[in-house]
Design brief:
431 residues; two-stranded parallel sheet; 9 strands; alpha/beta; 11% strand
Length: 431
């Protein structure tokens, strides 16, 4: 009996990829990254460093770029399609997936506070969904996914504009592609096993020759009902924080110091999962090397404040420590019946560790986004002021993207894998 022909590998092009959370989840679902675009050099360095062994072609010129405008030139697109064909065997019309999360500085609540009251129409990053649509038009993948923050749904181009007008323009832009069926959904990461609430807007386009079984007619916009996105699995529960982070609690930690080796063995399923490296079948052991577990150097007053919050059953900030800046919260060891109530942002200082008077480390922050411990992050640990926020009123749009921000901006890996598993089934069934 002849052997069955092996399935053609699925390939994805990732635009505005950040540090690679969306890509990593898709890779876990069986997709192979074919090309990556990321505007920020630090985030791109993180993306490439974690794929140099498994996907070395990404480091070559032509398979990664951080200039979106150069990418849209016809000559670049011709070269890219030629290399996809000759180097990766992806013929015209055979690319499986294009994904992208254009920067959301002007859509998110925190981004709006940092935009210095500039109208969103004046922020160049707010128009990059058009660039993604242009790439989709060039490459004609079998499917695409646009992702962004919940604030996009209600955003206005100007103060006097109509609520939701930007989101209307986004959908119109992708509908104009013509040969795709479009649906979208506001999803919550906790419904897919992520230890965060974290709402994300996911818009999915399926080329009309890709079959999908779902509910609702062609006018139905709900991507879950249409079968474009997976339904949450009620049996997949987000882990409690003590189960997610408990193995990283070092009784000998020092303010401003580092823990360079695992202080204990993995004790929960999620810990074992995140401590298992690529190509390994066993997790790391107590005493094995641990990276990115460096502690912030808090002042004595801040440590005293955190200790007081941890000692209070309600974790209230004592009056003498309160400021107008923001209200910090102590992370709960266990979520309770409502599940996760937090969303990781670019500001790790928003939260206090559930057992120690300190903010979370980069490694702990990454686990909140379900990045495995082998994943490394490039660039500065943190930064602030104009270097992180820019100043659109002064025409300063470039921003540093340190490690905490890279992680906070990422799509949670578990959410990406759930979406990837679902799309992989659809695409393979239609091959």
């Amino acid at each position: 009996m002849p052997r069955a022909k092996p399935a053609r590998p699925l390939h994805v092009v990732d635009l505005f990829a950040g540090c690679g959370g969306l890509s990593l989840g898709l890779e876990q679902a069986g997709f192979q990254p074919a090309f990556v675009n990321e505007l920020n050099e630090q985030a791109l360095a993180t993306y490439l460093a974690n794929r140099e062994a498994a996907h070395p072609h990404l480091a070559e010129d032509g398979f990664h770029v951080n200039d979106v405008h150069a990418m849209l030139e016809d000559a670049f697109m011709r070269r890219l399609k030629g290399r996809l064909r000759t180097d990766l065997g992806i013929a015209a019309g055979e690319l499986d997936l294009v994904v992208g999360g254009p920067p959301c500085q002007g859509y998110s609540g925190i981004g709006h506070r940092r935009s210095y009251s500039v109208d969103k129409v004046e922020l160049p990053s707010n128009h990059l969904y058009g660039a993604m649509a242009a790439v989709v038009a060039h490459l004609r993948p079998r499917a695409f996914v646009f992702e962004n923050v919940r604030g996009l749904l209600n955003a206005r181009w100007t103060d006097g504009g109509r609520k939701g007008e930007i989101w209307d323009d986004v959908r119109k832009t992708f509908r104009k592609l013509g040969d795709y069926r479009i649906a979208w959904k506001l999803v919550f990461a906790k419904d897919y096993g992520v230890p965060q609430n974290r709402p994300r807007v996911l818009l999915v386009g399926l080329r009309k020759d890709v079959d999908v079984a779902g509910e609702g007619d062609a006018k139905e916009e709900d991507a879950v009902k249409r079968g474009f996105l997976p339904r949450p699995d009620p049996d997949v529960k987000p882990p409690d924080l003590v189960d997610l982070l408990g193995d990283l609690v070092d009784p000998a930690y020092k303010n401003g110091g580092s823990t360079t080796h695992y202080p204990m063995a993995a004790k929960s399923e999620i810990q074992r999962e995140l401590r298992t490296g690529p190509g390994r079948h066993d997790s790391t052991k107590k005493g094995d090397a641990l990276t990115e577990h460096d502690y912030s150097h808090h002042s004595e007053r801040i440590v005293e404040k955190f200790e007081a919050m941890l000692a209070d059953p309600d974790h209230e900030i004592p009056e003498r420590f309160r400021t107008k800046k923001f209200a910090q919260r102590v992370l709960p060891q266990r979520w309770g019946s409502s599940g996760p109530t937090i969303t990781a942002t670019s500001l790790a200082d928003d939260y206090v560790h559930f057992a120690q008077p300190r903010s979370l480390t980069v490694r702990e922050w990454a686990r909140l986004q379900t990045f495995p411990d082998w994943y490394q992050f490039k660039g500065k640990r943190t930064t602030g002021g104009l270097r992180r926020a820019g100043n659109p009123r002064e025409g300063i749009f470039d921003r540093e993207v340190p490690k905490y921000t890279q992680i906070g901006n990422a799509v949670p890996v578990r959410l990406a894998k759930a979406v990837g598993d679902h799309l992989a089934r659809i695409l393979r069934a239609s091959s």
